[in-house]
C-alpha cells in the first residue's frame, strides 16, 4: 500500500482537504456537544444510590413538607437516619449570572449518609459547630477561588433577609465526590440557621423542608419503607411521594419533555449533512483520480490498492476532522457547561461521548471512500485511461 | 458588461447531477435544523406573546419574577380590590378584580413520566374579566365552591386523567373534571378551579395575584408608586401583556439562542461543503472557462456567474430544508418554562420562518461561492485551455 | 531476458452505441525477442487494443496470447497485475505521471510492488533516471518539467523494474519534433543496449523509422511487416 501516495493525495489538494476536514470537524463537534448534553442526564441515573430514599410532596415540586413530619418519620421501620434537604436557590453576589445549587441540610446525618463525599480540606466538625458555616465542592472552590475561611455572600431569591442584605456563609470545608451523581459544584449549609432566621423574623420564606432524605438500614426493603411512608401521610396535611434516588432524578428528565428527542433529531440531521458532504468530496476526488488510478493498475497495482487509496484518504480526512473537533470540544468544555447549566445540568464530555464522535466520523469516512473506491476498482484499466475527467 | 447566461449555470448543475444532489442535501439538512428551530420559536411566540392584554393588570408581591414566587395575603387582596380606583367596575357595580392562586402541581403524562402543570384557583370574577378570551368548549364550567375543575384544551393530549368525568386527586382531596376550556396563550395549558376549595386542598392560604380590568393606557407604575411607603403591602403592578412577555422571553430567547448557535456552526460546515463542491466543479470545467474567456467574457462576469451558481445551489438547499420541515407543521410539542411547568405549543413554519431560512441558505451559497468564483475569474485563458 | 510474443487467432470486440465492433479479427502475429517494433494502421484498426492485450490490461474474447512461457488467457486479473508489474513497462502519449509525486517518486512507484527495501528502491529509481538523462531533476514535480522531460521520466518509470517488454502508445504524439527525436533515440538505445523488446504504436512514419520493423494492421488483421533495417535512422 503506497502510504506516501495516500498522504500526498491529501496534501496535493490542500484547499479541498482543509475544507473537508473543516466540515467533519464542525459536525463531530456538534454531535459530541449534543450527546454530552443528553448523556449528562442519564449519568446521574446510573450512579444513584440504592439505600437512600427521598420523600417529597406528592402535590408539587414547589411545596414544602411540614417540619412535624420529621418526628413521625423516625418511627418508620428500616430508617437509619433522616436528613432534611431544602433548595435554597440563591445567587452568588459577585456572579449573578453564574449558577450553582445550594442546599440547606442537617449536617449530623448528612455526611454519613453520603459516603461518596470525602472532605479534602477544612473540617466537617467545624462545619457542624458553625451556625453560618458551609461546605463546598472542589469544582465550585476552583471556579471562584474560594478557600477555607472565606465568607461567601449569597443573595436569596426564595429566602430573603428582611434587612435586604445577602446571606453570608463561612467556608468550613471543601469536599470531593467519587460519584457523578453527587456533583462538586454544590454548596451546603445549616438548615437550622435558615429555620432560625425565619422564626425570629430576620428573613422571609417558606416553612418546612422540600425533601426528607431517608437512609435505609442494612437489609431494609426499600419498597416496604416507601409504602409505609406514603401511607403514613396519605391523609395529609401534605400527601407525600417517596421514591428511590434514581426515580427522583428521572423525574427531572421526564419534565424536559421532548427536548432530549429534539436534540437527537438535530444530531441526526448534522450527521446526514456531514455524510453527504464527505461523500460528495470523495466522489469528486475519485472522479478526478480516475486516470491516476488507471495508471496505477497498469503498473500492476491491484484493485484493492486502487480502492484502498480512496478509502484511506476518506478515513484520513475524517480522522483528522474528528481529532480536531474533540480537541476543540475538550478545550471549550467548561464554557459550554456554564452556559447550558441553566437549562440542562450535568453537561460533561466523557470518554463514551468522544469515542462515539470519533467512531461516527470514521464510519462516515469508510462509507464515503467505499463508493468511489468500489467504482475505481471495478473500472478496467482501459476504461480508466480513456475517461475524460 | 455582458453576463454569462444563467442557462449555462443551470445546465451545469444538471450535468453533474449526483454532485449537485449531494451538496443540496447537505445544505438542506443544515437548513432543516435552522428552519426547525425557527418554527419552534415561532410556534411559541405566536402562542404567547401576541395574546397578552394591556387592559388587564396583575398585582403581585414586589420582587416576584413570576406568579409562582408571588404571595399576596387575603387581606392584601381585599385592600387592592377596594382601594384601587383605576379598577373598572362591572355591570353590578362591583370592581372587576379577582384573586387567584397559582401552583405547579405534579401530574402524570400519558407516556408514564411526570410533569408539572399549572393549577389556578380563581374567583368567578376572573371569567368576567377575561370575557370571551376564555370559553368552555366541552362540558360546563365548575360550580363555585365545589370540588370541580375545568381543564385547558392544550393538556388533553399530553396529561392523563384530565378529560371530562375523570377525577384528579389534588393533595388529599379528589376533584372532578366537568369541562374543557379554550384560552389564550399559557392558559391553554392550565387547570382551573374554585379559589377557596383549591387553597384548602393544597393547604395554601396565600394567593398569588389579583387580576383586574383597567383602562388600556392606565399608568400602572403610578399605582405601584402609591404604595411605596405603605406598610400593609407593596405590590408589583404589571399588565398582562408585559407579564407574559417577561415569562416567555427567557424560553423564547433560549430557542433563538440555540437556533442561532446551531445555525452558525452548521452553517460553517455547509459553507465548507459548498465551497468544496464549487471548487471541484470549476476544476472540472477549466476548459469551458477558458473558452468563455477566449470568447470575450470579462473576469467579473465569470465571477458573478459562479457566485450565482453557488447561490442557486444554496437556495435549492434552502428549499429542500424547508420541505423537510413542513411535514412537522402543527406537530405539538411540550417543554417546560422557567417554573418547570408544562408548556405546550405547536411547530409553526410561518412564511417568515421559511423566508428567513431560504435567506440564510442563500447567504451560505454566496459565501461558499466566493473563493471558487474568484479563482475561476483569475484564470488566464491559456492556463484554462491548456489544463485539459 | 527477452521473450517472444505470439498471438494466435486473437479476437476482440467492443460494444459502442449498441453496435458491436470487431476490433481485432482472428489476428495471428509473431514478434521476436529484443526487437523494436512500430505498430501502424488507420484509426480503428486495433493498434491500441493490441497493445492493451499484449500488456495484459484486457482479455481477448478468444484466441491465445503467449509471452515467453506465460499464457495470458489463463491468468486472472490478479495474476495479470502481478505479471504486468514484473514483465511490462508502459509509456503513454499523455505521460500520465502522478502530479503529487516527484520524478523519482513516480519512478519508484512500480518498484513498490517488488520485494525491495527502501534504499534498493531508491537506488534503482535513480539509476533509471540517470539512464534517461534526468539525474539532476529527480526532486522535481511533473508540473516543473517540460513535456520531453516528463516523457523521459515516464520511460524511466517503464524500465525501473527491468521488464522484458516496453509498450509505448503514441509516445511522441504530444512532443515537438526535436524532443520527439530525443525520446525515440532513447527508445532505440534501450532496445540496443538493454535488449528490450519494444512495441510502439504510432501514426507517424518518421517515428516508425526508428524501429527495427513496422507492423501494419488493417481492419483487425495483420497487413504486412516491413523490415526497416535499410531505411533506419542511426543515432
Helix-strand blueprint:
The complex is a heterotrimer of chains A (389), B (388) and C (235).
Chain A: H1 3-12, H2 14-46, E1 52-57, H3 68-74, E2 79-87, E3 91-92, E4 102-105, H4 107-113, E5 117-122, H5 124-129, E6 133-137, H6 138-144, E7 151-155, E8 160-161, E9 167-177, E10 187-190, H7 191-199, E11 203-204, E12 211-216, H8 222-232, E13 240-244, H9 245-255, H10 259-288, H11 290-299, H12 303-340, H13 351-378, H14 381-386
Parallel strand pairs in A: 4-10, 6-9
Antiparallel strand pairs in A: 1-12, 1-13, 2-4, 2-12, 3-7, 5-9, 6-10, 7-9, 8-11
Chain B: H1 6-15, H2 17-48, E1 56-61, H3 74-83, E2 97-108, E3 114-122, H4 125-130, E4 135-139, E5 148-152, E6 167-170, E7 173-182, E8 190-194, H5 195-202, E9 209-213, H6 220-226, E10 235-239, H7 240-284, H8 286-295, H9 299-325, E11 332-336, E12 342-346, H10 351-378, H11 381-387
Parallel strand pairs in B: 3-8, 5-7
Antiparallel strand pairs in B: 1-9, 1-10, 2-3, 2-9, 4-7, 5-8, 6-7, 11-12
Helix pairs in contact in B: 1-9, 2-7, 2-9, 2-10, 7-10, 8-11, 9-10
Chain C: E1 5-16, E2 19-31, E3 36-40, H1 47-54, E4 62-67, E5 70-71, H2 77-87, E6 88-91, H3 103-108, H4 118-131, H5 147-159, E7 165-169, H6 177-194, E8 197-201, H7 205-208, E9 213-218, E10 221-227
Parallel strand pairs in C: 3-8, 3-9, 6-7, 7-8
Antiparallel strand pairs in C: 1-2, 1-4, 4-5, 9-10
Helix pairs in contact in C: 4-5, 5-6
| Largest interface, C-beta within 8 A | A-B, 53 and 56 residues
Q: What's the N-to-C terminus distance of chain B? A: 28 Å
Query: What Rg of chain B, in angstroms, do the CA atoms define?
Result: 30 Å
Low-pLDDT ranges of chain A:
none
Find the count of extended strands of chain A (DSSP E, 2+ residues).
13
Helix content of chain B: 40-55%
Give me the number of helical elements of chain A. Answer: 14
Shape of chain A: elongated
Biggest sheet statistics of chain B: 10 strands, mixed
Radius of gyration of chain A, rounded? 29 Å
End-to-end span of chain A in angstroms? 25 Å
Helix percentage range of chain A: 40-55%
Strand content of chain B: 15-25%
Oligomer: heterotrimer
Shape label of chain B = elongated
Count of individual domains of chain A:
2
Strand fraction of chain A equals 15-25%
